[in-house]
Amino acid sequence: MSKLTRILAALLLVVSWGSLQAQKNAEPTQWQHMPVVADGQTDEYPELSRYLSEIKMLYYIGNDDENLYIVMKTYDNAMMQKLMLAGLEIGLDTTSKKKMRAVIGFPMPRMQAFRRPDDAQQPGERRGGSSERGRFPEPDQMMLKGFIHIPDGETPLQNPSGIQAKVKVKRGEEFVYEAVIPFKTFFKPVLSPKDKDRVISLTFHLPAFERPENMPQQRPMQGERPMGGSRPGSDHGSGAQRGGERPDFELLSTETTIKKLFKLQYNDN
Length: 269
Hints:
Blueprint: H1 3-25, E1 27-28, E2 30-31, E3 50-52, E4 57-63, E5 67-74, H2 77-86, E6 89-93, E7 102-105, E8 141-145, E9 153-156, E10 164-170, E11 174-182, E12 199-206, E13 225-226, E14 245-246, H3 249-252, E15 256-263
Parallel strand pairs: 1-15, 2-4, 13-14
Antiparallel strand pairs: 3-4, 4-5, 5-11, 6-7, 6-12, 7-8, 8-9, 10-11, 12-15
């Protein structure tokens, strides 16, 4: 056996071992049987039973032969603020290398979140009257990068790519994130039986919120406490906003990145 042959054989063993490890560590997605419209509702999905403890979110990752489905929910009010102010990026990689090859940014960061009521409206936000001040505007834009035949940059939620996203926020109660991403936008037009158990990676990235320079540091006064702390699955846990609570700026200023492997499912019935 020549030296080159031995090197190639060793490389093949390393690649095979890495593939086996990825298969072992990957979570299976769930086959999505019901049709879906991204509307911030979870009725079309099974129970969200998995939990990302780093960001206090229940989640569901599913697929059919055309789409990848990502649904997340939190009851933690501080995390709701973090998501709506700093934004959320989800990176897709059709290998186990955990790269952010295609990225959907939604919600997008809101850099003027603590502006005065008479300040200019942030692009991509719907603004209500005085009765809605203090609430999070409903986002109508998302940021896309690295998708097939889709220009990088901001795009409306209503767009021809087929990528759908929606958040539904009940302040002090729950935050629901839903995304429908066609495989044709980052992988292939339609899955086939050979794609069963194919390992892909998802990266969940929560940037740090950049506080405006003119925004003073707020510290809890005596008897006050930051928002947050609800337990998963609790509709009325301690995460609901109460009088005397202030935003958790330590959480807002923290950057969080979670990388996970998933195995695609295939059902030809």
